[in-house]
Design a protein that fits this description.
Blueprint: E1 3-8, H1 18-30, E2 35-40, H2 41-44, H3 61-72, E3 75-81, H4 89-97, E4 106-112, H5 123-132, E5 136-141, H6 147-150, H7 160-184
Parallel strand pairs: 1-2, 1-3, 3-4, 4-5
């Protein structure tokens, strides 16, 4: 069973995007699609980026832990709010912090906003940042409009049937990319598996 790390990107007081991270964690586990873990950037409280991890002389234990979790994950879901048409510094901070850990890593993006567009204005800019660092961004997106009313504090959706239907499409794409990457990566004997 694949393992997916879910990055809850907002560190803002009163954030609502974390509800979506809770939802996906529950969805993956309850449907036995993958094991899931939430990397909550609010609890990591990273300093503003000053150097890539590979060049840091004495990285903190939290930085190393975060790096190892991304490296070990089969895929990543980023849950990010939209702030003034852009994504928060907290997620750019950890994208820039790592490098090899992101390369060819399947990454799915869920954007969130209080308004009707669900944070879709940030998708292109976030995709571009991930593309530049050689992550593999999944084509399917999961925008969440009116997030305050869409989920409760425990990540339970107001319209479970509709939300689960959308999530199924989103997660199916991520799992497809995870499987494709697994087949394309060399195994321990050096054989290259082709995805046909």
């Amino acid at each position: 069973m694949p393992h997916i790390e879910i990055i809850s990107a907002s560190v803002r007081t009163g954030r609502n995007s974390h509800k979506v991270a809770l939802y996906f964690s529950n969805y993956l586990e309850l449907n036995k699609l993958a094991t899931a873990h939430i990397l909550d950037l609010n609890t990591y409280n990273f300093p503003i980026f000053n150097e890539r991890l590979s060049f840091q002389e004495s990285p903190s234990d939290k930085v190393l832990e975060f790096s190892n979790k991304i490296k070990a994950a089969d895929g990543v879901i980023i849950i990010t709010p939209e702030y003034n048409g852009g994504y928060p510094a907290s997620i750019k901070n950890v994208i820039d912090l790592l490098y090899a850990e992101w390369q060819r890593k399947p990454v799915a993006i869920s954007t969130v906003s209080d308004g009707i567009f669900g944070g879709t204005q940030v998708i292109t800019s976030l995709q571009f940042s991930l593309w530049k660092i050689k992550a593999w961004t999944v084509p399917a997106m999961f925008p969440v409009p009116n997030v305050i009313n869409a989920f409760d504090d425990h990540g339970v959706p107001a319209d479970k049937e509709r939300t689960d239907k959308r999530a199924a499409i989103f997660i199916k794409e991520l799992l497809w990319c995870i499987e494709a990457k697994k087949r394309m990566d060399p195994d321990r004997t050096g054989t290259l598996f082709l995805c046909l």
